[in-house]
Each structure stands twice: as C-alpha cells, then as structure tokens.
Amino acid sequence: MTPKRRGHNEGTIKERADGLWEARVSLPGGKRKSLYGKTRRDVQDKLRAALRDMDAGLDLTAGRQTVGQFLDRWLDDVVAPTLAPKTVSSYREIVRVHLVPALGRHELTKLTPQHVQALLREREAAGRSPRTVAYIRAVLRIALNRALKWGLVSRNVAALTDAPRAVRTERRPLTPTQARDLLTAAEGDRLEALYRVGLALGLRLGEALGLSWADVDLDAGTLRVRFALQRIGGTLTLKEPKTEKSRRSLTMPASLVAALRAHRVRQLEERLAAGPRWHESGLVFTNTIGGPLEPSNVLKALKSRLAAAGLPAQRFHDLRHAAASLLLAQGVPARVVMDILGHSQIATTMDLYSHVMPAAHEDAAALMDAILTATG
User: Fold this and answer.
1) Residue 316 near residue 299, CB atoms below 8 Å
2) CA-CA distance, 17 to 2, in Å (whole number)?
3) 156 with 145: CB under 8 angstroms?
4) Alpha-carbon distance values, 231 to 75, 95, 210, 235, 245 (Å)
5) How far lies 144's CA from each of 42, 75, 116, 328, in Å?
6) Is residue 374 in some structural domain?
7) Alpha helices, DSSP H only, in 150-252?
8) Gap between the Cα atoms of 142 and 159, Å rounded
9) Could you tell me the end-to-end alpha-carbon distance of the chain, in angstroms, rounded to an integer?
10) CA distance 29 to 23
11) Of 202, 191, 212, 286, which Cα lies nearest the Cα of 252?
12) Which one of 18, 105, 279, 327 has the fewest beta carbons within 10 angstroms of its own beta carbon?
C-alpha cells in the first residue's frame, strides 16, 4: 500500500487496513481522540471541526451524548439539588412529555435551531397554548445554557429560535356589583370566607389554602402570608413562597374579619361532628375532617356558585384580578396594590392592570384642571 502523507495542518491522518480513514487529535491531559470517515475529505472535515471545538473550549471526551442523556443528567445534577420541588416537577414534565420524545435521540452537539423550531411549530399546530410552547423553549434554553457552561456545545441553539408570540387573554374580572352578588350568593357557604379572602386581599389560591390560624389575628384584623399549599409529587404540601415580597402581612377589612370569625365557629362545629376522624392541620380552610382542601374541588365549588348566581365563569385567580382592579379603580396607589398582591416589582402590577389606569388618569386630569382653573 502506498503511504499516505498528511496534509498541511491536518494532524495525524491515515488510511487504515480496512479502508476507513482515521484522524487522531491530541487532547488536554495527554489523551488522544480518533475520528473516522470513509474518505480523507471526511476525516479532514471532522478534524477541522474538532480543532475549532477545542479552540472554543469544548470537551471532546464527552463522546456522542444524546440530548436525552444530557437532559437526564441536567435534571439530576443541576435542577433537583438547586430548585424548588414544584419547579423540578415542572421541568421534569416538560422534558418527559415534550423534549425527549422530539429531540432526545439527537446527538447533543448536532442539535440545530431547525430541530428546536420544528418542535415548537409542531406543538403550536397540536393546539398547545403560546404560553406552554414558550415554556418548552425556555426550559430547553436553560438546559443548553448549562451545556454551554460545561463545554459540551459551542452555542445555545434554543436561543437562536423564535419564541411564539404571546397572546394576552383579555381579563374580565368581576365588577363591584358582580363581586357583591357572588358574596351574597355565598352567604352561609362553608367556603364563603375563602371567596372573601380572594376578593378582599387578592390572595393566590395556594396562599389562601396555606393560611393557618396561627397567622391570623382576628382581634388586630391582620393576617400573614407565609406559606402556599402546593401539590408536589402527588401530595399537598406547604411551601414557602418563592419571593420575599410574597411573604407579607396584610390588614383585613372588617367584613372579612367577621366572615373569618363565623368560619372559625363553623370549623369548630365540623371538628366536633367529625370526632376521632378529625385530622388537625391548623389550617384556616380545610375539608370536613380537618385536612387541606383539594384545589380542584375549590375551583369546582366556585364555578358552581358563580353559575347559580348567574355570574360569568371565573378562576379563583380571577378573584385576585378583581381585587387589584377594584383597588386601583378606587384610587389606591399602585405601590400599595403591589404590596397587597405580593408582586416583586411595580412594573408587574402596572403591566397586568394597565386597563384600569385610564379612568385614574382621567380623574387626575380633572383634579389638575380644577386646581389650575380655580378662581378666587
């Protein structure tokens, strides 16, 4: 066999006895990596790519790791030890349902923006909401940022794709009259006080269901939001809120204090009726034997109560929107509303409830006009 000479800057390239071509490249630490191809041109291209990757700081010893293998490692080594259980569960669901079936078999280093864009387009075509599709992209982008940091890829292909255009659903919170109609219809209901907490203070459902009597001072008319009830691994669990702003102390209106007093009496009666079946949780809102309320049951009860009162369908979260809208419409400063809702930034409050502000702007203009045109 005629000896084959190396081309300029090729590294070590030779033809093997079986007819394949082999290029060998030296790695840090004295290791060497072999690259194979059917022709000299094949291995030349692979060698040039390997040298570029080395210059970019990539780890060539990682082997042919698939996207699925990398995501599993990322979930176990990065996500699970550092993030909240609910977030971990959410990331695992996105990886299991969306990312691995569509992208898992691809080699990590060969994943392209086209692969990711095709996944996002397919999910949109399948009827997934823009928010869900954007979340799929966000989880993959976060994962690939870690791959970039570890030197496994040279670019984040998810960041090179187009996120779906966000479609903001127009919120139609209850009007003041509708809010009063709901509370009138709920008088005597065992969840009346829960609806009042949502409307009066704008608590999230998890925050309301995570309230304990130890955090409620009926004499002072205050309550503290310190926990939220979340489903983690199939179990309802009390978890601290994600942000410092979500942990807050609030002053209750007198009508809510009265409702909570009546609710406490009703709960004591249920405790006596349950006898030994009662499981003391210390929670304000419980099922009939003292355990935490199932969120889905709360939503069903609210839907039924609204329908019976002839009111439009609402999520519990929409009661929070109603509370914010009513406060802003009454001239309560946006920063105060931000604190009541537990938003981390006032921009969040203003963005969510900008639809309420035109009326406030009109009032401000009328007041300024009265000042500047006043006559002595």
Assistant:
1) yes
2) 12
3) yes
4) 19, 19, 12, 5, 22
5) 28, 12, 12, 41
6) no
7) 176-185, 192-201, 205-209
8) 9
9) 112
10) 18
11) 202
12) 18
What separation in angstroms does the CA of 24 have from each of 60, 204, 214?
A: 12, 60, 69
Contact in structure between 256 and 200 (CB atoms under 8 Å): yes
Name the packing angle between helices 316-329 and 334-341 (round to 10°). 160
Residues of the chain with pLDDT under 70: 1-11, 29, 53, 56-63, 166-171, 344-376
Which residues pair with residue 36 across a beta bridge?
Answer: 22
In a domain? residue 4? no
Q: What is the DSSP code (8-state) at residue 284?
A: S
pLDDT at 125: 87
Instruction: Give the tokens for residue 353.
Output: 């409830």
Q: Judging by beta carbons within 10 Å of its beta carbon (0-12, 13-18, 19+), is residue 219 exposed, middle or buried?
A: exposed
CA dihedral 42, 47, 52, 56 (to 10 degrees): 120
pLDDT of residue 32: 76
* Residue 74, amino acid: W
Q: Which domain holds residue 243?
A: 176-315
Spatial distance between the Cα atoms of 153 and 158, rounded to a whole number of angstroms: 12
Q: What is the pLDDT of residues 16-51, one digit of tens each?
A: 888 888 888 877 767 777 777 888 888 888 788 777
Return the DSSP state at 285: S
CB atoms within 10 A of CB 269: 10
179, 210, 215 from 227: Cα distances, Å: 26, 5, 10
Neighbours of 218 (CB within 10 A): 15
The Cα 357–Cα 354 span in angstroms is 5
Task: Report the CATH number at residue 303.
Answer: 1.10.443.10
Give Cα separations from 291 to 114, 278, 287 (angstroms): 49, 8, 5
Tokens, residue 7: 């081309």
Is residue 235 domain-shared with residue 190, that is, in the same domain?
yes
Instruction: Kindly state whether residues 212 and 304 are assigned to the same domain.
Output: yes
Same domain assignment for residues 181 and 305? yes
Tokens of 159: 């960041």
How many structural domains comprise the chain? 3
